[in-house]
Amino acid sequence: MSEFNFVKPGLNSVGQYQLSGIPYASNSIGVSNSSVTEVNFPTITKFVTVVNVHSGSSSPIRVGFSELGVSTNNHYFTLDNGESYTGEWRLASIYISGDVAPSTASVIAGLTMIEINNLPNNWSGSTSIYNDGVG
Fold first, then answer.
1. Which residues 6+ apart lie within 8 Å of 53 measured at CB?
2. Domains plus CATH for the chain?
3. pTM summary value
4. Measuring CA to CA, how many Å separate 80 from each of 19, 99, 103?
5. pLDDT tens digits, the chain, 135 residues: what are they?
């Protein structure tokens, strides 16, 4: 008797990025300016939106793709209060830190069915085979 073996989608499975994403949302993420907060996704993302939801005095956040990139290597972008950015990124996690003061962030993502282990090192510049400009 033969058995059907389902082939799991990989990092370059185009169909996973053509489908609508599985919703993911995380609100009120406390962001410290003395440490980096890592937001882990259950599967590889199709897109990610990061929002600085802090109200009151200016409290920018740093957003990047590795802990080292956000904390010391200047491989990040900054969002001021009320600003957001959406990117079509294949990520296992994203890193957020306060720029000069503690802040609050929200992360919204569309997930694929691609397992996390398909993306080695989440684009970390230190050991990644993909890109050395992120960490």
1. 27, 28, 82, 104, 105, 106
2. 19-114 (2.60.120.770)
3. 0.86
4. 32, 9, 10
5. 567 777 889 888 899 989 999 999 999 999 988 889 999 999 999 999 999 999 888 899 999 998 888 888 788 999 999 999 999 999 999 999 998 888 999 999 999 999 998 886 666 655 555 555 565
